[in-house]
Specification:
heterodimer, A: five-stranded antiparallel sheet, about 25% helix, B: alpha+beta, Aldehyde Oxidoreductase, domain 4, Aldehyde Oxidoreductase, domain 3, 17 helices, 29 strands, flavoprotein (chain A), oxidoreductase activity (chain A), FAD-bd_PCMH_sub1 (chain A), Diverse_Substr_Oxidored (chain A), FAD binding (chain A)
């Protein structure tokens, strides 16, 4: 194996002030795989497992703070998450396998890297892995690749389920870096590939995700996470939709919606969400919302099916949310 | 006596189960001889060309690296291609690892790093840089179809289609016609255990090679030929195999490279493949079948025209029997078929569970379903209407065919008569319900096999043959067979398999092991029993009641069966009295004169009827398989539990074939891109419903000595078609490409 330095700092200051090619290690479900595949080659692995980010805390405004090191499994099972953010619990349970969720952390989920075949295979050209080498996914076997937010340099799909729900919930990400702390909205956390596809997110060198803040969610039962994938468990989304609606007297007050499996980042379109403001639910409204969400979607060789499928999944998810019958992640019947 | 006197036919749990779940069962990558080197293979990222330069200086600097073996520094190997031929009989020029600098396929091994630790070997392997001269290639099946051909020398097990009548004319005259191109994506076997080899050098310098293979004697012969080694000094072992599905029929490059490295460095070596490397050798070929069916209005098949193509490499002509099954299984007066292979610059495709039939039966059964609907006939009724009691292609009688009974029992169990015929007519809320069915057929084969039975002073019966248990239950069924033949309790029987030094047994595959090895064990046990009683009767110390016709052996004890009884004698006592420490007998089961005549005059097949329920979301098209029933007619079932497990396993694999599994070839580089379990989707538990397996009573003394037909492949045949047909019944949409994925 390639040699690398390993440290397990006890304070943020120690963790954040390291020069050179470093990677933070939390649950390890992604980084270790990538190191074995020769995709990541850090000189220094900084294990942040001792930093105090292990708790889920109630917030004065009725929201929750999710520690970055709380596992996905513990988050999904936490009574306050289940009570206030069933949409988040559902999205987490739609992803990966129980074994992976037991190890993977909330901070790590934000920072997980794409599952693009070409990114994972060092024999192939990939601008995200090796800047400037080109994008072999374009024109290649790209059934799973993104159709929204792509660039000439990259069409890699952002893979998370959890982050799609976080985007619909308008969560905030707390960061600690060499220059102190800052916060950023989760919708602004991930980057479009543009000309710099190697940048997945806005993290600066030495910066660590410390927590995710969830604002109060006013959706009641009117939410869902609906995921269509190649098999019924343990597969990344072809199309997924997270929706939360504020319903009043049969009308939608306002709505929040994010797409997974479709974009190079969690895909939100405020103009599409604005269409829902103070409207009664209807097929034509939902078709318009889907159309607006998918505006500009571009297929490459193999992934046009996503664009055909997505409007139907979006509409269905909206109806699930309207009727207060969120998708179960254990019973595979789509509601 | 509280002993099961007929162990054969009982649902016995696998006797190797405890060893497996407690980690005592040793697999190919598990022996750890002192001084062992770890080998990591470096693979070519290009499909065709020539190695220009190997830059290995940086890799050699990694502490612990002992050698980097390439075509430039490898030791001497066999001079002629012929020496690399293996038992599978694929015509052509076999691939010779590290033979020279020419690249024939993406993923071809170009170097092996050998180091004191696995970590050092892997790091160094990442540092080996190779410059290539790139040559044009074609890895696109659609393009290779233009170069399809019939090999001048056919593969040994290839069955040429035999036309009958005038299919083209009959098709033109048929009032009902169905015509279409059906396609199956390439698939990889993906057994749980990756291919691996550990080479141990014994004190006398001989090699013991632990390899993940389905045929230890075939690997021994291959290595002896390819590496110019003496067979006598080369022992191949595979006592446990973590699944194979055909990937271990041919020697995989790891066994060649590990043994070559051990020869070069005179040290023990282990080479294990990674999951991505499991996509650099054999795979089920991509296939198309152009099928044209003609029928008269009353649903009588009049014509069947089947043209199939599968892919092969540029250097070998792999062939499969994909076009013959419908011609054999349906009574149809006019039928013709044509088969060709299409070359592309990949490794050679190879046999994967039910090779040929998994492709050909499933695709044909999808077309048959279309024809049934074109004739507005119930798909089961259509099949019964066109049922053939003979092998219709060879116009030969069959040893048995209880397919009619399988259809009836399966249909009854499934509740088929409650089916509503029109597509889209069965619904539950938002879900469309579809019921589909198909039939399956597979060869019932028997190959000459030897086995040894030995009775020791400890009173245990030891059975040995060079068969491989690839996870199917061979240990267990052979113990059951021995128990019944010899008259011995199961727990006093030891079975030894997976060793090239044991009595001859063909490579495990084709569902022939139960019939063949079972018969050999049966004969060896009868022979040993006769020998024991003979020796005892001849001994002057023996009790007077011991004579061949007055003694039985039951529950591991000799009994007097005359009215003078009851008297009995334990087996250790019997051995002592006869004056032996141990007695053994070896027998070979092979078709006798009657068997040979029967093989010439009668065809032999396993049959099945598969019924499936799917639920398809009416808006999204997402598919859930919610019920599967498979009624199997496979002659005598030695162990219903392990046999049903085999069928279920194949039904899971066939569900993958129908809905999930596809190796995605990037033709630009000739590489399968989804080379891991995250992206090559095999079914998960959530994808698989409760599966009911029924065994139809089928007594067949002629098919093989024990009346066994074998059950390893039949579960693949028909199941994928039943799922596709159910999707049609639910939605009214025909899918002619497998797998059927979301958005298709």
């Amino acid at each position: 194996m390639r040699h690398f330095a390993y440290s397990r700092p006890a304070t943020f200051d120690e963790a954040c002030h390291n020069a050179g090619h470093t990677r933070f290690l939390a649950g390890g479900t992604n980084l270790i795989d990538l190191m074995k595949s020769d995709v990541e080659r850090p000189a220094h692995v900084i294990d942040i497992g001792s930093l105090p980010m292990h708790h889920i805390e109630d917030q004065p405004d009725g929201g929750l703070r999710l520690g970055a090191l709380v596992t996905n499994a513990d988050t999904a099972a936490h009574p306050l998450v289940v009570e206030r953010y069933p949409l988040l619990a559902s999205a987490i349970l739609a992803g990966a396998s129980p074994q992976i969720r037991n190890m993977a952390t909330n901070g790590g989920n934000l920072n997980q890297r794409t599952r693009c075949h070409y990114f994972y295979d060092p024999a192939m050209a990939c601008n995200k892995r090796s800047p400037g080498t080109g994008c072999a996914a374009r024109g290649g076997r790209n059934r799973i690749m993104a159709v929204l937010g792509t660039s000439d340099a990259c069409i890699a799909t952002f893979p998370s389920d959890m982050c799609i729900a976080l985007a619909a919930l308008n969560a905030t990400v707390n960061l600690h870096g060499p220059d102190g702390e800052r916060t950023v909205g989760v919708r602004d956390y991930h980057c479009l590939p543009g000309e710099t596809p190697w940048r997945d997110n806005i993290l600066q060198p030495g910066e660590i995700v410390t927590a995710i803040d969830l604002p109060p969610a006013p959706f009641g039962p009117h939410h869902t996470y609906l995921k269509v994938r190649d098999r019924l468990s343990f597969a990344f989304a072809i199309v997924s939709v997270a929706v939360g609606l504020c319903m009043k007297d049969g009308r939608i007050g306002r709505g929040s919606i994010a797409l997974g499996g479709m974009g190079t980042k969690p895909w939100c379109v405020p103009e599409a969400e604005a269409l829902l403001d103070d409207r009664p639910p209807s097929h034509s409204l939902f078709r318009d919302v889907a159309g607006r969400l998918l505006h500009g979607a571009t297929a490459d060789r193999d992934n046009a099916a996503k664009i055909r499928l997505a409007p139907r999944v979006i509409e269905r998810a909206l109806w699930q949310a309207v009727s207060g019958t969120p998708q179960s992640q254990t019973d595979k019947t789509i509601r | 006596m509280n002993v099961i006197s007929t162990p054969v036919g009982q649902s016995v749990s696998r006797i190797d189960g405890i060893a497996k779940v407690t980690g005592q069962a040793k697999y190919a990558a598990e022996p750890h001889p002192p001084g062992m080197l770890y080998g990591v293979v470096v693979n070519s990222p290009i499909a065709r060309g020539r190695i220009d330069t190997v830059h290995d200086a940086a890799a050699r600097q990694v502490p612990g690296v002992v050698e980097i073996m390439t075509h430039l520094n490898r030791p001497h190997t066999a001079l002629f291609e012929k020496a690399y031929m293996d038992g599978l009989g694929v015509p052509g020029a076999p691939y010779r690892p590290l033979h020279d600098g020419e690249i024939h396929f993406n993923g071809q091994p170009v170097a092996v790093v050998l180091a004191e630790t696995f970590e050092a070997a892997r790091e160094a392997a990442m540092l080996v840089r190779v410059d290539y001269e790139r040559w044009p290639h074609n890895a696109d099946f659609k393009v290779s179809l233009h170069q399809k051909y019939m090999p001048s020398k056919t593969r040994s097990n290839y069955v040429p289609p035999r036309p009958r009548g005038d299919a083209a004319r009959a098709y033109a005259l048929s009032t009902v016609q169905v015509e279409g191109r059906y396609h199956l994506a390439p698939e990889h076997h993906n057994p749980m255990e990756m291919h691996a080899t550990t080479v141990i050098i014994e004190d006398d310098g001989a090699f013991t090679v632990w390899d993940k293979t389905q045929g230890p004697q075939a690997v021994q012969a291959y290595l002896a030929g390819a590496l110019a080694l003496s067979k006598a000094r080369l022992r191949v072992r595979n006592p446990y195999v973590g699944g194979a599905f055909g990937s271990g029929l041919r020697a995989v490059y790891n066994v060649f490279l590990a043994t070559l490295a051990a020869k070069m460095l005179k040290r023990p070596v282990r080479v294990t493949l990674t999951r991505p490397q499991m996509f650099t050798h054999v795979f089920r070929p991509e296939a198309i079948m152009d099928i044209a069916l003609g029928a008269s209005r009353d649903g009588t098949l009049q014509s069947m025209i089947v043209e199939g193509v599968t892919d092969t490499s540029r250097f070998e002509h792999n062939m499969e029997n994909i076009v013959i099954w419908g011609l054999i299984n349906y009574r149809c007066p006019n039928a013709t078929a044509d088969y060709k292979v299409a070359p592309r610059d990949t490794y050679t495709s190879s046999d994967m569970r039910a090779p040929g039939a998994a492709t050909g039966v499933n695709l044909l059964e999808m077309a048959i379903d279309e024809m049934a609907y074109a004739c507005t006939m119930d798909p089961l009724a259509f099949r019964l209407h066109n049922y053939s009691d003979t092998d219709a292609m060879h116009d030969m009688p069959l040893t048995s065919k209880a397919l009619r009974e399988a259809m009836a029992q399966g249909a009854r169990h499934f509740g088929w008569q409650r089916r509503s015929m029109p597509p889209g007519s069965m619904r539950d809320g938002r879900e469309l319900i579809g019921w589909g069915m198909a039939t399956g057929i597979w060869d019932a084969m028997f190959s000459p096999t030897s086995a040894r039975a030995r009775l020791g002073q400890d009173g245990r019966l030891h059975i040995a043959t060079a068969a491989s248990d690839i996870g199917t239950g061979t240990y267990t069924i052979l113990a059951q067979t021995a128990a019944e033949a010899f008259g011995m309790p199961l727990d006093r029987i030891d079975v030894e398999l997976g060793d090239s030094t044991l009595p001859q047994c063909p490579t495990e595959g084709g569902s022939w092991t139960a019939a063949s090895a079972g018969a050999a064990v049966w004969l060896a046990c009868l022979s040993l029993r006769r020998k024991l009683i003979d020796m005892l009767a001849r001994s002057k110390n023996a009790p007077p009641w011991v004579k061949q016709d007055t003694v039985t052996l039951e529950g591991g004890i000799l009994h007097d069966v005359t009215e003078n009884g009851p008297v009995s004698l334990s087996l250790p006592d019997a051995l002592s009295l006869a004056g032996y420490d141990a007695l053994e007998a070896e027998e070979t089961a092979k078709p006798g004169l009657r068997g040979k005549i029967s093989q010439m005059r009668k065809a032999r097949f396993t049959h099945s009827a598969v019924f499936c329920e799917v639920r398809v979301d009416a808006e999204l098209g997402t598919v859930r398989v919610t019920r599967l029933v498979n009624a199997v007619a496979a002659g005598r079932i030695l162990n219903p539990k392990t046999a049903a497990s085999q069928i279920r396993g194949a039904m899971v694999m066939a569900t993958g074939m129908a809905l999930h599994e596809e190796s995605l070839m990037d033709e630009r580089v000739g590489r399968f891109m989804n080379h891991n379990f995250a992206e090559y989707h095999i079914p998960t538990h959530a994808d698989i419903p409760d599966m009911d397996v029924l065994f139809v009573n089928e007594h067949d003394d002629e098919v093989s000595p024990l009346g066994v037909k074998g059950v390893g492949e039949i579960g693949m045949c028909g199941t994928a078609a039943a799922i596709a047909n159910a999707i049609f019944h639910a939605t009214g949409r025909r899918h002619r490409n497998l797998p059927i994925t979301p958005g298709a």
